[in-house]
Automatic annotation (TrEMBL):
One of its GO terms (biological process) is defense response to other organism. Residues 53-67 have a biased composition (Low complexity). Residues 177-271 form the Late embryogenesis abundant protein LEA-2 subgroup domain. Residues 1-99 are annotated as: Disordered. It is found in: Membrane. This is Late embryogenesis abundant protein LEA-2 subgroup domain-containing protein. The chain crosses the membrane at residues 115-137. It is a single-pass membrane protein. GO terms for cellular component: plasma membrane. Residues 1-10 have a biased composition (Pro residues). The keyword S-adenosyl-L-methionine does not apply.
Length: 300
């Protein structure tokens, strides 16, 4: 009679077999689950194996057991799903883009400051050049301006005629101006000018003068003869002018406006100029005092 020997004991695996073999408490649970699956039948969710079987080995990982019987901890790998990887890559790209933007923003203020500094420096240089040029022209022009004085002021006729309603004035006045070019190098170019003479708020006439050229160190006498016929005047102004003229104390204003030309650095420039002889007393002219006149550039 042959003896049935018990099967040899199974060699302990390295820890990757069925967890029920290593952990006995899982065996009862596994058998209970298999009964439930048999009653429910096949056709359950494919996530449980597709044929009604429920594998606890996929749910539980058995720890590795060494030959000495001591459990060795197993390194758990992090669970990485495809969606998480895409989000991580997107976050990295976004963070890298934001870093580049921050770097560009850090560089932009420096570039803006450099641009502003260069623009301000350029404008400052232009302004300095214009200022120096203006000062040079101004000093050169002022040194070239002529000296003007009144050498003669005489009424050849001054009478009033009464009409039915108004007072009329007839007057002839001769004024002589002396223009001296004190500069020994520059030539003065006088354009056509308009002369206006007045006294006691009465317009004594206007005259247009032809332009001329004045050489360095030259003296030119300019005759201004005005004529007025039957001009309407106020009684008070006419009375003042008549009384002062009889005493040779008439006060006359002479004003010339036009353009005056100069040579500056090889260029000929023409500037608006006014020659104003204000409050010239007839008595001073007769006594030879030669009242001076103001020469104003950039004026009309």
């Amino acid at each position: 009679m042959s003896e049935h020997l018990p099967p040899p004991p199974r060699r302990a695996s390295s820890g990757f077999g069925d967890p029920a073999l290593v952990f006995p408490e899982f065996a009862s649970k596994q058998r209970g689950l298999e009964k439930v699956q048999e009653e429910e039948g096949e056709g359950e969710d494919s996530s449980y194996g597709g044929k009604g079987s429920f594998d606890l080995s996929s749910r539980f990982s058995s720890p590795s057991v060494s030959r000495n019987g001591f459990e060795t901890p197993k390194k758990t790998s992090s669970l990485k799903l495809p969606g998480f990887r895409e989000e991580e890559e997107t976050d990295r790209s976004t963070n890298s883009g934001s870093f580049v933007d921050r770097e560009e923003k850090k560089k932009c203020p420096g570039c803006f400051r450099k641009c502003c500094a260069c623009t301000c420096m350029f404008l400052s240089i232009v302004l300095v050049i214009l200022l120096l040029t203006g000062l040079s022209v101004n000093s050169s022009v002022k040194s070239s301006l002529p000296q003007v004085s009144v050498t003669n002021l005489r009424f050849s006729r001054l009478d009033f005629a009464n009409s039915t309603t108004d007072l009329r004035l007839n007057a002839n006045l001769k004024t002589v101006l002396e223009l001296s070019n004190k500069n020994d190098k520059s030539v003065l170019y006088y354009g056509s000018m308009r002369a206006a003479v007045s006294s006691e708020n009465i317009n004594l006439g206007q005259k247009k003068l032809v332009g001329f050229t004045q050489s360095p160190g030259n003296v030119t006498y300019l005759n201004i003869a005005t004529r007025l016929r039957k001009a309407k005047v106020y009684d008070v102004d006419a009375t003042l002018l008549r009384n002062k003229e009889k005493k040779l104390e008439a006060v006359v204003n002479v004003r010339l406006s036009g353009k005056l030309g100069f040579d500056w650095l090889g260029f000929r420039i023409h500037l608006p100029t006014v020659i104003a002889c204000e409050d010239v007393k007839q008595s001073d002219v007769i006594n030879g005092l030669k009242p001076t006149c103001d020469v104003r550039i950039f004026s009309q």
